[in-house]
Amino acid sequence: MHTRLRSTLTFAFAIFTLVSLGSLGILAQESPSTKVARLLNESTFSVTKIEKDLWTITYEGKAKKEITVGVSIAKDMVLAIAVFAESEKVNLPPQVLMKLLRLNEEYDRVKVGIDREGAVFVRLDLTARTLDKADLITGIDQVAAVADHAYSEIRAHLPKSK
Length: 162
Description:
Layout: H1 2-23, H2 32-42, E1 47-51, E2 54-59, E3 67-74, E4 77-85, H3 94-106, E5 111-114, E6 120-127, H4 133-154
Antiparallel strand pairs: 1-2, 2-3, 3-4, 4-6, 5-6
């Protein structure tokens, strides 16, 4: 009798635990790739899928005519990146590098940097697990706005386009 009661209670506890974990989203979490694809599709952005885990959104800037923000997945991180000065064209004097460095202090969530190839970029790292549509939209918008502003700060030091 006690064995049967114990089995029934154990089974009930197991069912309760599974239902609770499921309702908390612990068991059925979306993969970062699926989640970002869904959130981008739910947004009002005009999104272009480049390849698996890589999308682009194009903005019209005030200083830079066209700003492309790339959104990609790296493990459990969502990266939003906009390159606003190409590597072979960048040779910035120290005072301009200081302007870029100060932009990191001016903007809280994004990073302004220069990659190994010399391209100047704005990047935002978001955690996929806690990401929602509002955070993704705000983040992508901020990357584009900061890229446009940073470009306006350094464009006088870039070679003229042909």
